Amino acid sequence: MGACFGKPSEAGTSARDASSTRRRGSRGDGGGGGGGGGGGRTNAHRPGQRIELLLLGLDGAGATTILYRLKLQKFIITVPTLGSVEETIRWGSEEILFHDLGGTDKLRPLWPMYQDGIQGVIYVVDAADRRLVDANRRELRRFYRAAVKLHDAPLLIFATKQDLSDAMTSEELQRELGLEEIPCRCYHVAGCSAVTGEGIHEGIDWIVGEIRRGGSRAASTLRK
Ligand SMILES: Nc1nc2c(ncn2[C@@H]2O[C@H](COP(=O)(O)OP(=O)(O)OP(=O)(O)O)[C@@H](O)[C@H]2O)c(=O)[nH]1
Ligand SMILES: [Mg+2]
């Protein structure tokens, strides 16, 4: 797939076809999301350089479980993250440093403190809990209002817990979260499960691919 240009909506390629992508730059818009607009550019990625990603989500969404699924290739029982956890994993020729931030309401205001050096954002949603859709929409917007340095960075939404019967699909979540209004460079919603491992590698491949080719993007294609 190409860079962050093209059709308003492209089907992704995760397992069970449970993903959807939006590439900014095709709408010619300039509004939505707020957030000032004076933010610095995200660190451009140089080949061989370590990638740094933020891993966010409401408490209990499943962020840390995804992190250790990636690190250990198995499902492990986690404890709630108090503050932040840093883990590095090897991804092909790349090294990725994850900043996994706790998601309780006390910790969410701290998320925007982690902007410097970050090249991509992963936001984890418990797709099986429909009661949290409003809170997820609100917290995503609040985060991006403050995190102006990340408006140039790709956003991966992990719609996790797809192993549970009533989990929302990625298309449903894309609509419900109002992702069109989020001032990120481009986004992708990937259905996944940290229990089965489904969809996680595809999601990481997407964000790493976007970061790799993001360095040459013309500023005019980016919303400020
Ligand atoms: N069924 C199911 N349960 C999951 C999945 N991923 C995580 N869980 C469970 O969800 C709960 C919360 O997981 P965590 O990874 O600790 O959540 P977190 O987002 O890191 O939460 P905080 O650290 O509090 O911000 C745990 O009981 C996990 O076992 C999944 O894919 N499927
Ligand atoms: Mg955690």
Number of helices: 4
Physical arrangement of strands within the biggest beta sheet: 1-2-8-7-6-3-5-4
Overall shape: it is: globular
Q: Regions with pLDDT < 50 over 5+ consecutive residues?
A: 1-17, 25-41, 216-224
Query: What is bound: which ligands?
Result: guanosine-5'-triphosphate, magnesium ion
Mean pLDDT: 83
- Fold-level CATH name: Rossmann fold
What class would the helix/strand composition place it in? alpha/beta
Q: What's the total number of strands?
A: 8
Oligomeric state of the chains present here: single chain
Model description:
By secondary structure, the protein is α/β, with parallel strands linked by helices. It has one domain (10-27, 35-211): P-loop containing nucleotide triphosphate hydrolases (Rossmann fold). Helices cover 21% and strands 22% of the residues. It has 4 helices and 8 strands, in the order βββαβββαβαβα. The protein has helices at residues 63-72, 133-146, 170-176, 200-214; strands spanning 10-11, 19-23, 51-57, 84-91, 94-101, 120-126, 155-160, 186-191. The protein has an 8-stranded mixed beta sheet, sandwiched between helices. The radius of gyration is 16 Å and the shape is globular. 42% of the residues are buried. It binds guanosine-5'-triphosphate and magnesium ion. Magnesium ion is lined by residues 63-64, 78, 80-81, 100, 102. GTP binds at residues 57-64, 103. GO terms for molecular function: GTP binding; GTPase activity; metal ion binding. Residues 28-41 have a biased composition (Gly residues). Keywords: GTP-binding, Magnesium, Metal-binding, Nucleotide-binding. It holds the Pfam family Arf.
